[in-house]
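Posting this for the archive.
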Amino acid sequence: MKRKQGFKMHKLGMITIGQAPRSDVAPIIERALEGRAELVQAGALDGLSLDYIQHHLSPSPGEYVLTSRLTTGESVVISREKIQPLLQDKITRLEEQGIRTILLLCTGVFPGLHTRSAFLIEPDHVLPPVLKAMSSGRRLGLIGPLEEQKNNLKLKFSPYGLNPEFAAASPYSGSEEEFLRAAGQFKNQADLIVLDCMGYTETHRELAAHYSGVPVVLSNALIGKLVSEMV
């Protein structure tokens, strides 16, 4: 379809808890957008060195553990409590640029994030009810990045009556063998597998589906399809 002269393309803000641009995940979201919106990326850790991140933003005992990717390709383990102010600052800055829809590129839980009036899409609010409807009483398997995240990742599903089995394999630092081992834990143990991190790719989905023999949901692709209806 030919655009009318003077047509102004919508913008979708996408904020990673790591560093932008996310060359690994952005193509998945852009495919879902089908050219209807320009993707504007920002990262909570933009401009910060690996040394600074490791010394100032690593989790202390009892803090909510997250992991993400830097533009160098390195992975980092970070504290939600320590990065949330940085994340909120990026949200505010995107909204100040006039961006009306902002996607958080993380499936973790972030209480208190807000905008003035823009739509803020937080995957942890979207995925559990959608997966509840999709699984319909079937056995659910969950692959997340780190073993330390097991309880937090499972807890967000419990209000929806879901009690998924968990296996850990990082999309950033894990090997293909580790990922296949995680997927293999669900052979004959799950009817549906969820890749519960926005850093997994289509390659991870295909590997998990092939090795487990059951359908696999790629969280970022599912969220991308839903968000594409808002731009």
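Residues 80-96 form the longest helix (17 residues). Residues 125-218 form a domain with the Rossmann fold fold (CATH 3.40.50.12500).
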